[in-house]
Amino acid sequence: MQSFGNRHQTRFFDHEKIPSKDLIEKVLHKTYKLVPSKQNLMPYVVKILGPEHIEIKKNIYELACEIEYPDINLRNEYRLDKIKAYEDNNVTYNNRFPKGNSQLFAPYLLLLIPRKPINNPTLAKTYEEYNLAVFDGHKLIPNNSNVEIGMFSAILTAISIEEGLSISYTACLNASKLKNTYDWLKNELVEPTLALSLGYKRPDVNGTEISYHNKLKGEEKPEKQYIFEWI
Fold it and tell me: 178, 60 in Cβ contact below 8 A?
């Protein structure tokens, strides 16, 4: 559990020292091997955006800003004008400090999406032979998928930290609008649930990170007695 004790929400990722694709695939494949899944169906898909997809990440950031500031004037003032100024002045990514969900600019961005399980006729036949009623492989069950997405994210987090990577989570994605923006998302039945950002954190911004032990003002968990109820 030491890896989780050191976890923090990295806001600013290093764009000069970037993990190799091989390392990211190592982390993903180890997570795939270890993650539990009901009936081993893994009812979700992970869409991976690498370092080359800068414009897509910028658009995802801008869509997330719409969630924070529905008013376009406020959105420009507090978020988008700063991005435009960086671009107009050719400021390198390692010298940028965008506000809000800046982790969406990470070298690697993973979008986790509930999905109808991949067809598994052998397992379906096994259930039929044993007269078992509950086989989930024929349909999309978003609630089940989202639970498994959470488990995948937790295991990926631990493995990433062990490999020296930083990781962040983003749920306010403006997911419905995002889904309708790209062809590679339009074919999915539902919108993305969560985005995971992966990379190395910038060494110059330690004081601006949100760590597990250094939370935002008012960002406190409820008292334990409100969470754990013995019956």
Answer: yes
Q: Residue 218, class by beta-carbon neighbours within 10 Å (0-12 exposed, 13-18 middle, 19+ buried)?
A: exposed
Quick: pLDDT tens for 37-69: 988 999 999 999 999 999 999 999 999 999 999
| Cα atoms in the 13 Å half-sphere on the side-chain side of 95 | 7
Contact 104, 67 (CB under 8 A): no
Burial of 106 (0-12, 13-18, 19+ CB in 10 A): buried
Instruction: Name the H helices within the chain.
Output: 2-5, 21-34, 54-68, 72-75, 81-88, 121-129, 142-162, 175-179, 183-186
Place of tokens 């969406």: 104
From the candidate CATH numbers 3.40.109.10, 3.30.230.70, 3.20.20.140, 3.40.1190.20, the one assigned to the domain spanning 2-226: 3.40.109.10
- Alpha-carbon distance of 89 to 1, in angstroms, equals 43
State the pTM of this model.
0.89
